């Protein structure tokens, strides 16, 4: 029986070593997987940051383009308004003229060409 007990102790010591080795290997595998996952996630985060930066740049560029377009439209409208106000003033002066012949001579120059702003949409 002493030999049996001794054998049981040896078997358990061996089993204990197997568990320790298994834990050691499992820990090493977990560390390797963790390192790989951290690296992959870091790459993913860096890629996402790069993409975000690109998308933000595109948004800023589109906004600037829309603002520049709107500023161009505003300047064009200001020019048309100025021209129309000038024509209005001329028409008011002509309406004061009692010489109908003079009035008829100057009327053809009163035509105003203007852009159809109903078709223009703001992209802001």
UniProtKB/TrEMBL annotation:
Record domain TRIM8/14/16/25/29/45/65 coiled-coil region: where: 9-118
Pfam families, per the entry: TRIM_CC
InterPro entries: TRIM8/14/16/25/29/45/65_CC (IPR058030)
Name used for this protein in its record: PPUP7436
Organism expressing this protein natively: Poeciliopsis prolifica (blackstripe livebearer)
Gene: PPUP7436
């Amino acid at each position: 029986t002493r030999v049996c007990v001794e054998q049981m102790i040896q078997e358990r010591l061996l089993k204990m070593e197997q568990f320790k080795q298994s834990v050691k290997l499992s820990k090493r595998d977990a560390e390797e997987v963790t390192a790989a996952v951290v690296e992959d996630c870091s790459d993913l985060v860096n890629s996402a940051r790069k993409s975000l930066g690109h998308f933000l740049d595109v948004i800023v560029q589109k906004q600037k383009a829309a603002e520049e377009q709107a500023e161009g439209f505003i300047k064009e409208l200001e020019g048309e308004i100025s021209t129309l106000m000038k024509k209005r003033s001329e028409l008011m002066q002509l309406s004061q003229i009692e010489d109908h012949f003079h009035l008829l001579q100057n009327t053809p120059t009163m035509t105003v060409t203007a852009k159809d702003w109903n078709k223009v949409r703001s992209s802001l």
